[in-house]
């Protein structure tokens, strides 16, 4: 066993011990109740009596998991504020851009954002984007999910996506669709640029653009993005 | 009524099916079975932030409730749930990174039966500081690998990277941690 393996074993033990200190007890029934109230399902075999119970217990049970609901409400409020901010910023940006000549090359920035509560991520850029020393990478995106898949090329920012550092065309892959997209990426030496997949709906930074090109394809399934290598 | 008899897989499959159809009791059973695993992994991803951990896991359960019907294989349930929670934790950590002051506290393991050892808790603080100096993505990688027990394929799927990229990144992180933490 080499030194690194010994270190890895000891580190694993320390990390697991540390991780156990973060486990809080939870009222599982209250968790289930809260998500069910927040997101009622209309499953065909759902007993009618449960719907009745939903109504009977709604008010009483909401207090069981108070902090969660408070955060949910806060999130909703922040989301609404973010929408207002994005609309305001987008409007201002559009006004500024209208007076400027379009001098950049080809490219496209994603415009579809399927999240019901969009966050204040990079604002739409109405003019094409230039990537100094850029290189093209064409790859297949297999979207097997029932939602559109959105793609971005940006740096990592403090609150998610940061400054745009490349483009992708097209930037939205419709549900249950397989298509090829073309990325315009910065040179391989740039290690701060990332490809993002569905950042607004549970996805995130997928891999560094410096890792591309790679053989394979994007696969979006079960709410997750995977890379199918060849 | 869900009975906890039979094999784990059968039970898990039954709970999944019922929960996907909107059965809250079955969903509570899934929470019972997986909440601790999700919390411990997220605790590392958030760098030891209890509040963020709780928020991430709660958010993950909300997503799981809505998307549980997309999972068919009971074997995929645990990694799927943990992956969702880790994604939430990563996003929350990134949003809160700016302006946060690192609170250096000594975390006590409630399950530990050994007496308090000052040396080991200095080590805990070192570990906490090392985690604080890492990106949420790197913390997610080591949390999934060493706490969640993910193999390289599961890691790649969860972190949306290639398996080879995952292994290379893990090696880089370990090398850096070794120099920061020493051999212990």
Distance, first to last CA of chain B = 49 Å
- Give the percentage of residues in beta strands of chain B: under 5%
Q: Which band does the percent of strand residues of chain A land in?
A: 25-35%
Specify the oligomeric state.
heterodimer
Poorly predicted runs of chain B:
1-6, 98-107
Specify the overall morphology of chain B. globular
Average pLDDT rating of chain B: 81
Helix content of chain B: 55-70%
Tally of alpha and pi helices of chain A: 4
Name the largest protein-protein interface in this structure: A-B, 63 and 75 residues
Task: Report how far apart the termini of chain A are.
Answer: 33 Å
Rg calc of chain B: 18 Å
Strand and helix order of chain B: HHHHHHHH
Largest sheet of chain A: 5 strands, mixed
Structural class determined from secondary elements of chain A: alpha+beta
What's the tally of helices of chain B? 8
Task: Give a verbal description of the structure.
The complex is a heterodimer of chains A (230) and B (184). Chain A has 230 residues and is an alpha+beta fold. In chain A, the strands form two sheets. A five-stranded mixed sheet of chain A has the order 4-6-1-9-10, with no helix packed on it. In chain A, strands 2, 3, 5, 7 and 8 form a five-stranded antiparallel sheet that branches. In chain A, a hairpin with a 6-residue loop joins β7 and β8. In chain A, α2 packs across α3. About 32% of the residues of chain A have low confidence. With 184 residues, chain B is an all-alpha fold. Helices cover 69% and strands 0% of the residues of chain B. In chain B, α2 crosses α3, α4 runs antiparallel to α6 and α7 packs across α8. The N terminus of chain B is likely disordered. Chains A and B meet through α1, α2, α4, β8 and β10 of A and α2, α3, α4, α5 and α6 of B.
């Amino acid at each position: 066993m080499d030194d690194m393996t010994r270190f890895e074993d000891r580190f694993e033990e320390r990390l697991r011990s540390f991780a156990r200190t973060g486990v809080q007890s939870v009222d599982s029934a209250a968790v289930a109740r809260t998500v069910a109230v927040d997101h009622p399902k209309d499953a065909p075999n759902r007993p009618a009596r449960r719907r009745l119970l939903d109504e009977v217990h709604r008010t009483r049970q909401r207090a069981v998991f108070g902090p969660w609901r408070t955060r949910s409400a806060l999130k909703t409020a922040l989301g609404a504020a973010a929408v207002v901010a994005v609309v305001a910023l987008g409007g201002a940006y559009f006004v500024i851009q209208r007076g400027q000549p379009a001098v950049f090359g080809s490219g496209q920035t994603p415009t579809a954002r399927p999240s019901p509560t969009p966050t204040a991520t990079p604002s739409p850029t109405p003019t094409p984007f230039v990537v100094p020393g850029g290189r093209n990478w064409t790859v297949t995106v297999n979207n097997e999910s029932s939602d559109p898949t959105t793609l971005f090329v940006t740096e990592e920012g403090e609150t998610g996506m940061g400054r745009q550092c490349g483009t992708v065309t097209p930037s939205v892959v419709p549900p249950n669709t397989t298509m090829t997209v073309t990325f315009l990426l910065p040179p391989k030496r740039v290690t701060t640029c990332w490809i993002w997949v569905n950042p607004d709906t549970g996805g995130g930074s997928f891999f560094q653009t410096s890792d591309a090109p790679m053989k394979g394809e994007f696969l979006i399934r079960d709410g997750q993005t995977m890379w199918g290598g060849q | 009524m869900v009975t906890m008899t039979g094999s784990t897989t059968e039970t898990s499959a039954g709970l999944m099916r019922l929960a996907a159809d909107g059965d809250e009791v079955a969903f509570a059973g899934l929470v019972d079975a997986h909440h601790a695993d999700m919390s411990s992994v997220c605790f590392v991803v958030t760098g030891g932030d209890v509040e963020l951990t709780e928020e991430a896991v709660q958010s993950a359960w909300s997503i799981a409730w809505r998307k549980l019907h997309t999972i068919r294989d009971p074997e995929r349930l645990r990694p799927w749930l943990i992956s969702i929670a880790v994604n939430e934790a990563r996003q929350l950590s990134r949003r809160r990174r700016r302006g946060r002051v690192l609170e250096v506290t000594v975390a006590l393991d409630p399950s530990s039966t050994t007496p308090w050892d000052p040396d080991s808790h200095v080590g805990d603080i070192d570990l906490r500081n090392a985690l604080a100096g890492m990106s949420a993505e790197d913390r997610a990688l080591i949390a999934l690998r060493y706490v969640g027990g993910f193999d390289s394929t599961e890691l790649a799927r969860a972190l949306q990277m290639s398996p080879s990229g995952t292994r290379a990144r893990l090696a880089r992180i370990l090398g850096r941690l070794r120099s920061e933490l020493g051999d212990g």
